[in-house]
Amino acid sequence: MTLVSQTTEAGGQNAPLRFLKTYPMEIILAALVIFLVVAAPGFASTGNILNVLRTVAMLGIIAFGMTAVIISGEIDLSVGAGAALAGCIVAWFSDSYSGALGEWGAVTVGFAAALLLGFSLGYLTGRFRQWFNVPTFITTLALFAALRGVANLITGGFPMSSFPLGFDFLGGGYLFGIPFPVYIFALTFAGMHVLMKYTSFGREVYAVGGNMEAARLSGIDIWRVKAWTLGLTGALTAVSGTLIASQIGAGTGTTATGMELDVIAAVIIGGTSLFGGKGRIWGTLIGVLFLGCISNGMTLMNVSEYWQYVVRGGIILGAVLLNQVLERVR
Asked: How far from chain centre, in Å, is Cα 191?
């Protein structure tokens, strides 16, 4: 047997292993979908698939931003409360200024205010990290409590539903048979994928997360990078919060409770390292779809809500362990 044939044979034998190492979550997601098609009644129906896509859209819009934050070496625990506050701000503007600005004018100004506030809070969180050396874990944990409190203060603790006719289309409508939030989800994915993979800013994010001191010595403004990733995530949180308010027809302080954990879980399941410097927007897309499918599948199979929490916890731990094992064997 010649050396060439031996090499070819060895390469052929190793090809499946290399594929498994490169695309572990894609393979697991495909296996999960096949299992749910067989085991979960109605999972493969068009209506259910569209429902899953609508659900993951709200989560994924924030998760794509969170991917950049975690790659940069930081974290944001306030996104659930931020989404609730954004919906309440839009609802409050709609309720208070429809007479002066017109119904849609008030909604537009409210959304712009929520977007600006979301970006500003995220950006300032990054700067607090620089000025006072306060970990973003602590800062965003404080915001986690404060923002939900502000949301309830704005609405008086009750749902505020003074939205104009047609506002429900943003979160609950269909365009060409596809839920409208899915288009926002797809655009966010495309934008973040390009930003992180093909721009100098994306390369700076990876450099800062991989080795902050080396990035600083190479001339990168590390704090600007961290602040902008957090600000971007804050803005995307406002977008998602507005879509959620549209879907449920109200702004309320109880919206998106626990969403921050699902967002972080999707990012981790997608292969992003909590230590920073590694991760892909594509991986987060897989993580979001995986969470959406397994949550929907368990509901269709009448799995207890309490057991669903147990399963989610196990999945997060399993994803972390899998990524650690793959890092060692690559």
From this structure: 14
pLDDT tens digits along 223-235:
999 999 999 999 9
- Tell me which residues of the chain have a pLDDT lower than 70: 1-13, 327, 329-330
What is the model's pTM?
A: 0.92
Per-residue pLDDT reduced to its tens digit, 268-323: 999 898 889 999 999 999 999 999 999 999 999 998 988 988 988 888 788 778 77
Q: Tell me whether residue 7 is exposed, middle or buried, using C-beta atoms within 10 angstroms of its C-beta: 0 to 12, 13 to 18, 19 or more.
A: exposed
Question: With contact defined as beta carbons under 8 Å apart, do 243 and 57 qualify?
Answer: yes
Question: Residue 66's pLDDT is what?
Answer: 97
Which amino acid is residue 70, in one-letter code?
I
Q: Domain residues of the chain, as ranges?
A: 45-329
Residues 6+ apart with CB under 8 A from 152: 253
Nearest to 125 by CA among 237, 251, 287: 237
Contact 87, 255 (CB under 8 A): yes
- What is the per-residue DSSP string for 29-90? HHHHHHHHHHHSTTTTSHHHHHHHHHHHHHHHHHHHHHHHHHHTT---S-HHHHHHHHHHHH
Q: What kind of architecture, by CATH, is found in domain 45-329?
A: Orthogonal Bundle (1.10)
Of 72, 113, 112, nearest to 195 by C-alpha is: 72
